Amino acid sequence: MKSAQRTAALLAGAVAVVAAPVVAMKALSDPADPRVLVGAAPPATLLPGDVRDASGRMLAGAVWTGLVAYDPASGAPVNAAAESVTSPDRRVWTVRLRQGGRFHDGTPVTSRSFTGAWTAVLSEGWHGASLFTDVARVKGAKAHGKDVAGLKVKDDRTFEVTLDRPFNGFPSLLGDPAFLPMPDGVLRSRDWSSYARLPIGNGPLRVRAHDGRRIVLERLSGGRSIVVKAMPDARQYAAVEAGDLDIATAVPPNRHESMDSDFRGRHLAVPGRALTYLAFPAWEARLSSPSLRHAISMAIDRSAVTEGALGHQYSPANSFVPPGIIPGHREGQCRHCVHDSAAAISALKDANGLSGPVPLWYQSNSGDDAWVKAVADQLRKELGLDTRPNPVPDLPAALNTHKVNGPFVVHSEAPYPAPVAALAPLQNAVPGLDDYTTDLISEAERAPTPSEGVIPARLAETALLRDMPAIPLWSAHAHLVWSERLRGVTANAFTGLNLPHLTLKN
User: Fold this and answer.
1) Environment class of 380 (CB within 10 Å of its CB; exposed 0-12, middle 13-18, buried 19+)
2) Domain with residues 64-183, CATH architecture
3) Which residues pair with 314 in a beta bridge?
4) Mean pLDDT, range 294-308, rounded to an integer
5) Any signal peptide, and if so, which residues (predicted)?
6) Mean pLDDT, to the nearest integer, of 8-33?
7) How far lies 88's CA from each of 91, 93, 175, in Å?
8) Where are the beta strands (DSSP E) in 147-265?
9) Which pLDDT score is estimated for 5?
10) For residue 506, what pLDDT band results from cuts at 50, 70 and 90?
11) At a CB cut-off of 8 Å and minimum separation 6, what does 100 contact?
12) Which pLDDT tens digit goes with each residue over 240-286?
């Protein structure tokens, strides 16, 4: 697949609809077994508050209905299980549930279904706990805490959430699996392991079987069941070709170039919500020059790394905001992210050069070895720098003790769809952000509406691009390929493949 075609696929968005003729397929053509077969990596867990991978998010979006969903065109939150999410000051939020909501076991979805589930996320220290403590900053929320002062039930359909500060992104954050409800019986028994094996949700699909090799999902409205088969990434592509799957959620590197010919009109690259950066330690004076940082950024050939060491699973970054964030996103903001050897050499000269070892610090056993080596090789070749990979067992500890004396790797993921959601995590991950930038990020979070927060977020990004305390490198994207008989393929960066939309042609 050509580079221009890949870029066009990413920029086109995350929605595709199939309309090709029906073909007979081996193992799937039997009308007595009219199921939709999906290939995916096995999820780490089906506990909604502990979801930590793409497969888990995909399944959570099918089995549960959260308070909000995301509009496929704008990326903005739209009410789902919630009738309304309102606040007079963006600090105290009132959530009103739709009438008649029920779990798959017939029990009602109430305010306590949400507040009890959220308290469990915190008390159990599940993966989603940081969204309550560090992102939403719910009053009194702390990992392994049992009482949350900021959660108050008003009646069966109304509850109140108090935050530590005004935060306009709260409704958008509610689309994350960490904020999903759980039935009263489970909250009382606290038998999490049994619940994770056969979870009871309130969404359009219910789990009918789960044996580790497959998860069978039944539609509440009737129609075709969906079977999610646990399958290694490398096998899924060939399984769709052979007719053993309807859709693959991963494409191996060696098949990337042939996607367009193998699945013409039936493949999709879904822009991601995470970015990888190369940041600079604020205490290392020799790395403080913006010209030097620009030189390093322009010397990195991002396309060569994403198509080589990263196996076509990432897209070169051209801004500080991942491409999967639709509201307020701007493409092509980072002109210093474009590979330009001559400009890089000139910028390094303007910075009076850089001598001595320049180690590239990163967390060992993180899967970063190949690309860090590739970047180090590029910087040696392009700028003559003495760069070498430097994996360490505890990068946060090395940063806290100021042992880091060279650029270091930062992986960051936006927790909700807004430009400021991508920038705010950098305040903790990248040392030495100036007050001007952090004040703009705070202003964007506190703005009366998310749309009014876009301008300060853009100004903050402009400041980051000027001084480059971190260099945007690339963003992961998902790949989908599907059979000719499948239709209704839609996906986005925050929920992944939309399973309830999948149907087979008549």
Assistant:
1) middle
2) Alpha-Beta Complex (3.90)
3) 476
4) 98
5) 1-19
6) 40
7) 8, 8, 21
8) 151-155, 158-162, 205-210, 214-219, 226-230, 247-248
9) 45
10) confident
11) none
12) 999 999 999 999 999 999 999 999 999 999 999 999 999 999 999 99
pTM score of the predicted model:
0.90
**Cα separation of 314 and 493, whole Å?**
13
The structure tokens listed for 70 are 């995301």
Q: How far apart are CA 182 and CA 42, in angstroms?
A: 22
- Residue ranges in 165-210 assigned as alpha helix (H): 170-173, 184-189, 192-197
Q: What's the gap between Cα 416 and its chain centre?
A: 8
Q: Give the span between the Cα atoms of 251 and 51, in whole angstroms.
A: 23
**Mean pLDDT, rounded, for 221-238:** 93
Reported as a single tens digit per residue, the pLDDT across 417-444 is: 999 999 999 999 999 899 999 999 999 9
Domain ranges of the chain: 3-42+212-269+478-504, 64-183, 274-476
**Strand 267-270 vs strand 386-392: parallel, antiparallel, or unpaired?**
unpaired
- pLDDT higher at 146 or 338: 338
Beta-sheet pairing, 226-230 with 205-210? unpaired
Query: Residue for token digits 């940063």?
Result: 399
For the structural domain made of 274-476, what CATH number should be given? 3.10.105.10
Tell which residue, 268, 85, 51, 70, has the closest CA to residue 159. Answer: 85
Q: What is the pLDDT of residues 478-498, one digit of tens each?
A: 999 999 999 999 999 999 999
Exposed / middle / buried, residue 491 (Cβ in 10 Å: 0-12, 13-18, 19+): buried
Question: What's the pLDDT band for 83 if we cut at 50, 70, 90?
Answer: very high
Q: Is 402 left (phi over 0), alpha (psi -120 to 50) or beta?
A: left
Is 149:140 a contact under the CB 8 Å cutoff? yes
- Across the strands, what pairs with 479? 269
| Residue whose token pair is 């739709």 | 98
Distant-in-sequence, close-in-space partners of 144: CB < 8 Å, separation ≥ 6: 122, 123, 124, 125
CATH superfamily of the 3-42+212-269+478-504 domain: Periplasmic binding protein-like II (3.40.190.10)
Distance CA 115, CA 129 (A): 13
Q: Please spell the DSSP secondary structure of 94-137, one letter per residue.
A: EEEEPTT-B-TTS-B--HHHHHHHHHHHHHTT-TTHHIIIIIS-
What confidence score (pLDDT) does residue 388 get?
97
> What pLDDT is stored for residue 115 in this prediction?
98
